[in-house]
């Protein structure tokens, strides 16, 4: 008994702009399905629209996929570069009788449609005698079945039936010799060995016409899986009015790539009640039969929850790398060696509370600033003469203590009690001295991250 053919999926974006969040999810679903089965995930750039396709858009798509952490097999395929192959297949179909020459001009087609509203165009050249055919430019059309139905056995939508009398003889090769997108897609998917076509359900009607091209060539039909589109919170198709829609915008907002993979995987697919998972689990669990038929809704609150989970779960080293990448992506200066060292010491105490990378950097601001610390108005108000005197005594008390949380807290407690105060009463001036803010992480977490010398220097700067 022969083993089943290896799974091959593909992502085939048009390079006419940024990578939409819906396209990113489509790429992720294809990647998960292939990787979970030891298969191949291929990338094809559908750049046949030369007026709108740009190298910059192609680069942006590749960068987006790399940021998301999706690796593909082999080199990306250019659809435009394969135009000769598309024409070759069209002419083979012409020779086999599964396609025919159509000499109808664009003006004649427009006039026919005006005279026959709500009807599918039927070329008068479909069954014309070759001897009557003129020496003139012609398109090559598919000789599609006129009767019966075309059924798409869709892994998500179920069986979807199309009446053949509602499908026209689509053009394969235009009169100028260029292939149509609908034809090129089928030839490319066949030649690339694609076994599963996972894409948005806005392509479902295309599948019927493309299936006819497969059948006309006697090629094996791939498994189709048309996934519902992503909607906004109002239930309408996602657009810029809902906020961020480009993957680069989510990267700039500081959602880690691992969190985006987790969140996008759950956007229209489910595995029981599991909401939080890693790549290995997603690849092992992902299957087409668990994709819902209804559109998924983008939920920023849920995304923030998932993001917070992944930030907390990252190792400090991985999180430092993610922060460095975020700073580079958003055009911010990289961390200095001193900043990275302080931040690395602080992450263990900070990462459990942050839901995005900018929020984490804001919490860690105390570790990134240099002396002298510039206090905002609210923090500066806590540095009255009495508080400054107490900070001076604390500075002296901290000179020789063991630099551990317990010993630091004990020294601060003794200093506060010497003035008949609770520890909370000196927390505000401590925050002002160390961070210049009234809302900060624990003062002792800050001291540990800053180290003895920097902590004492900051306290000395304001001590009376």
TrEMBL record:
Residue ranges occupied by any Glutamyl/glutaminyl-tRNA synthetase class Ib catalytic domain in the UniProt entry? 7-304
Q: What class of enzyme is it?
A: ligase
A biological process term (GO) from this entry: glutamyl-tRNA aminoacylation
Q: Where in the cell is it found?
A: Cytoplasm
The protein in question is named Glutamate--tRNA ligase
Annotated binding of ATP, by residue: 240
Q: In which broad location class does this protein mainly occur, judging by the first location in its UniProt entry?
A: cytoplasm
Catalytic reaction equation(s)? tRNA(Glu) + L-glutamate + ATP = L-glutamyl-tRNA(Glu) + AMP + diphosphate
Pfam families in the record, alphabetically?
Answer: Anticodon_2, tRNA-synt_1c
Q: Which PROSITE patterns match?
A: AA_TRNA_LIGASE_I
Alphabetically list the UniProt keywords. Answer: Aminoacyl-tRNA synthetase, ATP-binding, Cytoplasm, Ligase, Nucleotide-binding, Protein biosynthesis
| HAMAP family xref list | Glu_tRNA_synth_type1 (MF_00022)
Q: Where is this motif: 'KMSKS' region?
A: 237-241
Q: Give the Enzyme Commission number.
A: 6.1.1.17
Function comment: Catalyzes the attachment of glutamate to tRNA(Glu) in a two-step reaction: glutamate is first activated by ATP to form Glu-AMP and then transferred to the acceptor end of tRNA(Glu).
Q: Where's the Aminoacyl-tRNA synthetase class I anticodon-binding domain?
A: 327-461
* Quaternary data: Monomer.
Question: What GO MF terms are annotated?
Answer: ATP binding; glutamate-tRNA ligase activity; tRNA binding; zinc ion binding
Gene Ontology cellular-component terms listed: cytosol
Regarding protein family, the annotation reads: Belongs to the class-I aminoacyl-tRNA synthetase family. Glutamate--tRNA ligase type 1 subfamily.
Residue numbers of motif 'HIGH' region? 13-23
InterPro entries to which the protein is assigned, alphabetical? aa-tRNA-synth_I_cd-bd (IPR045462), aa-tRNA-synth_I_codon-bd_sub2 (IPR020751), aa-tRNA-synth_I_CS (IPR001412), aa_tRNA-synth_I_cd-bd_sf (IPR008925), Glu-tRNA-ligase_bac/mito (IPR004527), Glu/Gln-tRNA-synth (IPR000924), Glu/Gln-tRNA-synth_Ib_cat-dom (IPR020058), GluQ/Sye (IPR049940)
Q: Which organism is it from?
A: Paracoccus contaminans
């Amino acid at each position: 008994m022969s083993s089943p053919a290896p799974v091959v999926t593909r992502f085939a974006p048009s390079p006419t702009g940024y990578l939409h969040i819906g396209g990113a999810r489509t790429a992720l679903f294809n990647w998960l399905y292939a990787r979970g089965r030891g298969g191949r995930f291929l990338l094809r750039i559908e750049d046949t629209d030369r007026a709108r396709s740009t190298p910059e858009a192609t680069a942006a798509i590749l960068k987006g996929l790399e940021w998301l952490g999706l690796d593909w097999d082999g080199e990306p395929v250019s659809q435009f570069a394969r135009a000769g192959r598309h024409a070759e297949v069209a002419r083979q179909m012409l020779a086999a009788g599964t396609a025919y020459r159509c000499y109808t001009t664009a003006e004649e087609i427009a006039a026919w449609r005006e005279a026959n509203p709500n009807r599918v165009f039927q070329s008068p050249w479909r069954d014309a005698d070759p001897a009557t055919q003129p020496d003139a430019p012609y398109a090559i059309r598919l000789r599609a079945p006129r009767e019966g139905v075309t059924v798409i056995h869709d892994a998500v939508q179920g069986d979807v039936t199309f009446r053949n009398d509602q499908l026209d003889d689509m053009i394969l090769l235009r009169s100028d010799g260029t292939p149509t997108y609908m034809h090129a897609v089928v030839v490319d998917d066949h030649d690339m060995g694609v076994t599963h076509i996972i894409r948005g359900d806005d392509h479902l009607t295309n599948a019927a016409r493309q299936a006819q091209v497969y059948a006309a060539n006697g090629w094996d039909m791939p498994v189709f899986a048309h996934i519902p589109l992503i909607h906004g919170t109002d239930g309408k198709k996602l657009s810029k009015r809902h906020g961020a829609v480009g993957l680069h915008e989510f990267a700039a907002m500081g959602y880690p790539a691992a969190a985006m993979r987790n969140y996008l995987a759950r956007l229209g697919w489910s595995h029981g009640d599991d909401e939080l998972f890693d790549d290995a689990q997603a690849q092992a669990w992902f299957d087409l039969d668990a994709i819902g038929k209804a559109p998924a809704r983008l939920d920023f609150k849920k995304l923030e929850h998932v993001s917070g989970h992944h930030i907390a779960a990252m190792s400090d080293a991985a999180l430092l790398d993610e922060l460095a990448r975020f700073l580079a992506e958003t055009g911010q200066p990289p961390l200095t060696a001193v900043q990275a060292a302080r931040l690395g010491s602080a992450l263990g105490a900070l990462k459990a509370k942050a839901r995005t990378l900018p929020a984490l950097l804001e919490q860690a601001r105390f570790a990134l600033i240099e002396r002298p610390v510039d206090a905002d108005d609210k923090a500066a108000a806590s540095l009255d003469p009495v508080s400054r005197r107490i900070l001076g005594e604390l500075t002296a008390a901290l000179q020789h203590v063991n630099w551990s949380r317990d010993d630091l807290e004990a020294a601060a407690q003794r200093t506060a009690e010497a003035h008949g105060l609770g520890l909370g009463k000196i927390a505000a001036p401590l925050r002002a001295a160390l961070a210049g803010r009234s809302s900060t992480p624990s003062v002792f977490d800050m001291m540990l991250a800053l180290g003895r010398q920097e902590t004492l220097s900051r306290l000395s700067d304001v001590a009376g």
